[in-house]
Request: fold
Amino acid sequence: MPDHPYYSQALHGPFETYALGNFLLEDGSTLRDCMLAYAIFGELSAARDNAILVTTWFSGTSKIMEQAYIGAGRALDPSKYFIIVVNQIGNGLSTSPHNVPAPFGGPNFPHVGVPDDVIAQRRLLTERFGIDRLALVTGASMGAQQTYEWAVRFPDMVARAAPIAGTARTTAHCKLFAQALMDALTSDPGWAGGWYETQAAMRQGLHMHARLWALMGANPSMYSQELWRGLGFSSVEDFVLGLLDASFLPLDANSLLVQGRKWQHADVARPYGGDLAAALGRIKARTCVMPVSTDMFFTVADCAAEQRLVPTSQLCVLETAWGHLGVMGMDRAYLAQVDAALMALLAAD
Amino acid sequence: MPDHPYYSQALHGPFETYALGNFLLEDGSTLRDCMLAYAIFGELSAARDNAILVTTWFSGTSKIMEQAYIGAGRALDPSKYFIIVVNQIGNGLSTSPHNVPAPFGGPNFPHVGVPDDVIAQRRLLTERFGIDRLALVTGASMGAQQTYEWAVRFPDMVARAAPIAGTARTTAHCKLFAQALMDALTSDPGWAGGWYETQAAMRQGLHMHARLWALMGANPSMYSQELWRGLGFSSVEDFVLGLLDASFLPLDANSLLVQGRKWQHADVARPYGGDLAAALGRIKARTCVMPVSTDMFFTVADCAAEQRLVPTSQLCVLETAWGHLGVMGMDRAYLAQVDAALMALLAAD
Reply:
């Protein structure tokens, strides 16, 4: 991937790749030379029964999941589990608009759905590692969408599921947020239908996109309490520049759009005629649904409504004033709650 | 105002105007031929003690305040009170970027602050009507900002104050929202530094602006409960088109920017060295602080924190799932709560 310096082993590695060849998507289009980038931690047991799959969120890569959620003494402990963190298609490390050959890249990149990711991930797990059952699938935000899709689509492969700060079907309000993020990008005068030639050409759109995350990602109470001070920032603007702009400005706009559309259209019930209860009723995994208490777009109420439709499930609200951005792990109390919930889930039969 | 068909007597009247001449703003700039547009209801008593001032919100005019809040049997009853609804400067009816002579209009329109509005409104009340004390000042959103400014700046003129869904000092998070709204407009390729020549040239920016209101104006729970059905809409998109786009697309972008900057910089404490407690401590009005329970940017917590600094005050949370947009009055239960609270406030000595 020499054509976009951000999506590099230097910044996000070490990661490995698995080639799936030409990959047929659910909508009938083909993803040429599909490749999944993934990072592994720990060792697969001889019985192949200690595998945990960790999925990635919008704009995130395996690196942030490693940094925030994996470690000795944590729930996701590499000394106990074989942990595979898989980058979602389009996130910049796995096959994405900037790293496929012309004319298939840029805005010609196909519309990928969450099911496409899960089907590709299943091939990685079975073909590469011989894993046919996962001790746990977990991920936050769009990672929760993949977690739900796994548990619904392949119920016999998922022993436990922990969707964090995300839903199985994107709500109407959440769709409006995803659309606003995409509109911020495509409204850039430099957008050129997705054929922008440089990163700088998209500066305005990426700036607006980052600022929408500052607005909707964090809860108003975080700003009222000035919790950004705890991260070493000196003012709100310093925080927004130093966390949001710093995180989002280097990203590829077409990559964000692939993920944004995927997020917007996520719906585990699509194969079941839109019957969400029927879809979620298929889940055999012991499931811990973990919304963030102050989330502005994957709200506790919306997550709880789905949890009630999952047979063997419980709701575990993660208390933090950080809102959705809390999934990044800046609040240690949040991480302690995640670890406690995941440890209890992993300890259960 | 022949140059912008939206801001007309036909759509927003009947309203009257009061000329203030060249009006010196707090920042030292001059607003040429400043004029306030206002609507009156009821009759001023001989003792001039039954006057109620109603202020307007971002993008709103006196018409929506009349339609939603004033009527026989309501708290704001023209048979009992002399009600003056005053359009804020820049809202399109009062002096605004589109209706001042060149070269003072468009993006050259000065930066108006909430105190400028209140000082101008005071001149209208005293010079035109001989009113030196108001039975009540009330308004929602930016109207609450004006209400607070009135009660702090002229404490002896305000017997009662009812700021609805707004704060005395704009919070950091709320500033981010105002900035996003403004960025949506100024990012339009047709913006041309504010010298767009037609309404159509600003379509994309006005569209994004409207969609941000769909996202942040209404609470996620409104969408989950599909309360838009109660307004006669058939789908979320139908609702967003029919309420948000319909409301915002006809507006003048420069007008919205004047109001957006004013909103962003609202702070009753500025003359008091930023000491909010000192500023709010000046209030002599019996005050009922009325946040909307599900407001996403003028949150209950932020409103309650200010209420605790107002000497003779109480908090009255208005319960509705509509979020901030609830101030438009589509929820009858919301309006009933407003009327009950205002009636109690008006009945108190």
